Amino acid sequence: MLAAVFGLTSCTKESINPYNGEGEDIEMTITTNVLGIAESQARALMTNVQETAISEVRVIAFNTTHQYLYTANGRVENMTQGSGNTSAAHGNNGLATADIKFTAKKSAANVYFVVIANANTQVDAVVPEGTASSSTTKAAIYSNTNMRRVMGSKTTKWTATTIPMIGETANAGQQINDATPKIAVNLQRMLARIDVNMGTLIAPTPAGGSFELKSVSLYDYNNGGHIAPGQTLLQGAGAFGATTTWAVPRGTTPYSDHMTYNATGGTLTREIYTFERTIGAAGTANPTTLVIGGVFKSTAHTNPTNAVSYYKLELKDGSGNLPINRNHSYNVTITSVNGPGFPTEPPVFDTQTVTLGATIVQWTNKPITGSLEGPL
């Protein structure tokens, strides 16, 4: 606990210096909001409840110069899933909300809070509850090597039932006293999700063309990431949005190996979870890439044995290779197939002829055209 140091001119509660001493305990509530996921995508490894679930919380207090003050345990109450309604830009998917109760310290000086969910082990390794160090900064905590999640190997999939999330109250802070109102904050997941679905096939799909999705392999991805992003978070309960600066741990190298996920019923949703990844200008770094496996048939290509062939899709937009943003879903819809693909998974970064068209939509609903590549 912080050592109590009182001012010499007064013994009132308001004169307690929160940076050098301990204020009186006070119960506070922060309401958290997590962007929901469309209910129609309920099948797969993680359900909507798990993607928005909060199983444990730490609340970290900072002064307005971003010096660490203390860590408090958060108690989760009044959790709702997918309530309310967000804008069309976020799919009208609603918000999951929860009240986080915690013990704060009364303070005449302004204080703000960072809420970290589903990562108590990582937080406690850096700033455990009941300790304080006025020399510790928020930047040092965020970049600490313990504040990261790394998969066990390059082919280890995300199987945890919750996703680490983080959010900050407004950094201008506020006084903490009996009149302090409930504070709201938005949480961002540290992971991105990639979904692949079938759309209505259009030209240049040949006559009688059909495609049954069987598998998706993820190539050139990071196997680790920081819980906190590499920029100041959107503060308070303002608009949701993408981070534009990435927090890729030192020493992280994108894997050119792959992880394969099996599709069921022509769709693959809520199974591919991956860490954020920055990329350079177009052509300066290999994009995160999917290899799509499926059964292609047409009038001219009857494929009586239902042989699976493979197609490459690089995650790109009109400006070049797409970065992978935390708290975003990359929704790939297959829209055309003009021939059979490779008989086996192809060399991912070889240039080939486009044979399968796709549209990629992020949570921001910005349409991005893409393509899978294979031999004609």
Task: Write up what this structure looks like.
The protein has two domains: 177 residues, Immunoglobulin-like (Sandwich); 159 residues, Immunoglobulin-like (Sandwich). Helix content is 4%, strand content 41%. It contains three helices and 22 strands. The strands form four sheets. Strands 1, 2, 3, 4, 5, 7, 8, 9 and 10 form a nine-stranded mixed β-sheet that branches. A hairpin with a 2-residue loop joins strand 18 and strand 19. The protein is elongated and about 80 Å long.
Topology:
Blueprint: E1 25-35, H1 48-52, E2 57-63, E3 68-83, E4 95-105, E5 107-117, H2 120-124, H3 138-143, E6 148-150, E7 165-168, E8 174-176, E9 183-186, E10 188-189, E11 191-198, E12 210-221, E13 224-226, E14 255-262, E15 267-275, E16 289-297, E17 308-314, E18 316-317, E19 320-321, E20 329-337, E21 354-361, E22 367-373
Parallel strand pairs: 1-9, 11-20
Antiparallel strand pairs: 1-4, 2-3, 2-5, 3-4, 5-7, 5-8, 6-13, 7-10, 11-15, 12-14, 12-16, 16-17, 17-22, 18-19, 20-21, 21-22
Q: Alpha-carbon distance between the termini?
A: 68 Å
Q: What's the helix count? A: 3
Query: What's the number of domains?
Result: 2
Corresponding CATH architecture of the largest domain:
Sandwich
Q: What percent of residues adopt helix (DSSP H or I)? A: under 10%
Main sheet record: 9 strands, mixed
CATH overall fold name of the largest domain? Immunoglobulin-like
